[in-house]
Amino acid sequence: MEKPDVLFSGGRFRVVRRVQVTPDGQKHLRPIIEHPGAVTILPLIDPQRICLLRNYRVAVERELIELPAGTLEPAEDPAHTAARELAEETGYRARRIELLTTFYTSPGILDERMYLYVATGLEPGPQALEPGEQIETWIVSWDEALAMARDGRIRDAKTLVGLLYGDRFLRQHGP
Q: Within 10 A of 160 (CB to CB), how many other CB atoms are there?
């Protein structure tokens, strides 16, 4: 594999041009966004309620309903990232954080791998938002969260994946 050309390097990602060689021997240049990976968390207040966020996103210029999430720091264990981001964004500290699955958010252009965790045994505490973050916690029933996924109020992909996968997992295995 050829070393990619770096087109842009930012704080949390970089854009590179990779060479793809197809089975017929042709070479194709592909721009790819390289990302260190991220986590998203299903914070279960109890078996019937979950903590969601109302989060203003500059990229889409609107508030989205989301699960807590965050980017991995260099060499950081994803479970540690999940605990850190849960506390920062919601104020909750979890007695237990369990990995449910991993998935790719947009593999056509992005190598970001997302780790989905479920957090239980939550204890409330203060949020520790980064400068500029506009995040409000919102406790809803599990059924209401699923209704928002079905009716389009939730438009964030990681939240849709998290809720729908989490629902299937929790129905089969419990919290």
A: 16
